[in-house]
Amino acid sequence: MPKIRVLDKQVAELIAAGEVVERPSAVIKELVENAVDAGASVVTVEIRRGGVTYMRVTDNGCGIAPEEVPVAFLRHATSKVANEEDLNSIGTLGFRGEALASVSAVSHVEMFTRMRDQETGVRYLCGGEEEPELEEVGCPQGTTIIVRDLFFNTPARMKFLKKDSTEGNSVAGVLDKLAMSHPEISLRFIRDGREQLHTPGDSKLASAVYAVYGKEFASALIPVRYELEHVKVQGFISVPAASRPQRSMQNFFINGRFIRSRTAMAALEEAYKGSIMVGKFPACVLHIQVAAGAVDVNVHPAKLEVRFVNERPIFDAVYHGVYSALKAGDRPKELELKRPAASPYAPVPEKQEQLPLSAAPMVLRDSGAAVTLPELDSPPLRVVEPPVRPAPVESPARTVTETVSEPVLRPVFIPKPAASLEPAPSIQEECPASAPLEISARVLGEAFGTYIMVEYGKDGLMFIDKHAAHERLLYERLKAGKHGSEAQTLLEPVAVSLDKEEYTAVLAHEQELLQAGFEVSDFGSGMVLVRSAPLMLDGGDAAEAVMEIAGRLAGLKTEITTEHMDWVYHNIACRAAMKAGDHTTREELVSLAKELEQNPEVRYCPHGRPVYILLKRRELEKQFGRVQ
Q: What whole-number distance in Å separates Cα of residue 60 and Cα of residue 80?
């Protein structure tokens, strides 16, 4: 039987450090939270190589007394909890007293600190098994902690760290949450010598959200301010039109601490029911203020989960606050009227009459589409009749029965892929002008805007789900690589705001996305530019597809596989396929039915639903009593 022994102090500290320090972002989180608790108004974070080799956190807080500096690095040493009663009403971000001890156990740490009422500060060196050093130095007020060579003495943990870019984006994600949790603090983030985040620290949550997520995200928000049963909810929620395919942009803060709360999440999404599409999720930045004794934050080692004494008031406050804000702040889309700018390249006819400014046309804009409209008080537009062609001349040899009309200019559009398929000889739409062909089936029409009705031979009536059929056929083409090179360059690149983990995942799989037809590039600060998309998608669908694919990629624990590429193809095909309820021409219905007959192996859509159902004539005649 193995002998029971007490572990050495160094081994015990290495084990305990794993509960707090998992990666560089965990170190940054602990150190910045200490800076917040110290009353800092300005915090600067700098990392190199994702934080593995170098991390620095500088604040202008209260500092640490020289005689207390060595004590701060002992395990369970803290200034925030004194007795058992204090655990029932924790009002600070840190309270366990394990952060500095855990960090120093697996890295080299250097600290500079000075209190407000002292002329000099101290420099403290420690880390691993090295003997600590303490000396008096000159330094600014506050505390600066430098962490070098993380996990230098635990190579087993070092090999589980991800690429520097991934670890760096994880740090950026943590700082995003801290910036929005405390908008009164000016937070600056420097990564490999480049500034990536700088919040103004003006105590305005809107300013912090703008700095973190950018203009596009911030411009589609509705303010929330509500109080119910001593629970205060304030912040911002997204308009229903800006809903997202994942919950990654849902940010909840309890008493200034970022948390993951199923209660708050359920209340948020319940308030949006009936306002957003199924499968879409709202985004939010919501601060919830409750009494310190009503919530227990001592649940998770990373302090990301909390427990409420009573969850009902939290749910009700979030639900009613969000619901009320939606009713008051969600407005129908407005059309913006603008005068078109004169193009310096447009030739002006010499004899063209110059109209006064008041008669200049107005441009009606909605989602990028522009229509020129005259003002009500402008003179009537002059209608130019097309030239009249001579009447057809009758010849003694034959009579001309066809007339040739002037060509009409129409908007240019790209038809759905199914409409451009080569016709198959076995299925044909009834048309008196077409030559008779040998057919085995006949398209009768469409039912409920969803199902194509096909008379199949003499004994069957086939119902085809047009969306399921089109989706599966597009998926098979993508999988076969027939559309991989048919990507279209967007006229204007589309900017997509992503969570830092999604942002990392997209940039890490640029080649796989290019294989699927998406060309994306880094735009910085959690945004990517979509420069090209599969030919079957437009710009809006391309942005939605990239957001959904990003969420999927962010959840991968390993490199992308064939299975995950199939999911990407599913996503593209589902978005590009004709939808149930869409107006579909008979030509498109016939073309889809033709291609389906040419691919008899297509029986189910990528989601597993049947593509068609065959009703036998005998079963139909049974219902009418024609046969027994």
A: 19
Task: Identify the bridge partners of residue 288 per DSSP, sorted by sequence position.
Answer: 233, 254
**Range name among 53-67, 105-119, 466-480 with the lowest pLDDT average:** 466-480
Beta bridge partners of 487: 534
> What is the helix, strand, coil percentage profile of the chain, to 5?
35, 25, 45
E runs forming strands in 307-448: 307-308, 336-338, 362-366, 369-373, 441-447
pLDDT digits (tens, 9 = 90+) for 243-289: 888 888 999 999 999 988 899 999 999 999 878 887 889 999 999 99
CA distance readout (Å), 387 to 149, 185, 405, 443: 82, 72, 10, 41
On whether the CB atoms of residues 562 and 512 are closer than 8 A, the answer is no
φ, ψ for residue 70 (rounded to 5)? -60, -35
Please write the tens of the pLDDT for every residue from 495-554.
Answer: 888 888 888 888 888 888 887 778 888 887 788 898 888 877 766 678 888 888 888 787
- Is the predicted pLDDT of residue 401 greater than 90, yes or no? no
Q: How far is CA 590 from CA 63, 72, 290, 413, 464, in A?
A: 77, 77, 62, 20, 11
Q: How many Cβ atoms from other residues are within 10 Å of residue 554's Cβ?
A: 19
Dist CA 28 CA 482 (whole Å): 47
| Burial readout 3-39 (b: 16 or more C-beta within 10 A, e: otherwise) | eeeeeeeeeebbebbeebbbbbbbbbbbbbbbbbbbe
**Longest Cα–Cα distance in the chain:** 119
Handedness of CA 573, 575, 576, 579 (dihedral sign): positive
Q: Residue 290, exposed/middle/buried by CB under 10 A (0-12, 13-18, 19+)?
A: buried
> Does 199 have pLDDT greater than 70?
yes
- AA identity, residue 440: S
Q: H helices within 57-187, ranges in order? A: 69-72, 99-105, 155-158, 164-181
The model's confidence at residue 416, banded by pLDDT at 50, 70 and 90, is very low
pTM, 2 dp = 0.67
Is the dihedral angle over the CA atoms 70, 73, 76, 82 positive or is it negative? positive
